[in-house]
Design brief:
The chain is built from one helix and six strands, in the order ββββββα. It has one helix spanning 83-88; strands at 2-6, 11-19, 24-31, 45-53, 58-66, 71-79.
């Protein structure tokens, strides 16, 4: 899997894998240094591990950051804005 985007921290690229059997994703989000919030964005990587929760229709898990100056982790959710629209338009 691959993609890109931006958030308040900055512009990023995302690479990862998806397990069809376990419905899990492992992603690495790499920020482009010098974009977005220059105090927060140091061109670092964020590791994201999520699993599909069919009861609520979203992926749930954690994100983690570990650099020489900073480390943290917290809850992560990935959901579709309109799941019906996604199902109707493959």
């Amino acid at each position: 899997m691959s993609g890109n985007g931006f958030d308040r921290v900055g512009t990023f690229k995302m690479l990862g894998t998806y397990s069809i059997k376990k419905h899990r994703m492992n992603l690495t989000k790499t920020y482009q240094r010098g974009t977005g919030d220059r105090t927060e964005n140091i061109g670092h990587k964020v590791t994201i591990q999520v699993i599909w929760n069919s009861a609520v229709g979203q992926f749930e898990g954690k994100w983690r950051v570990k650099t020489s100056n900073y480390h943290d982790e917290n809850k992560f959710e990935l959901k579709y804005e309109n799941l019906e629209e996604l199902s109707a338009n493959p």
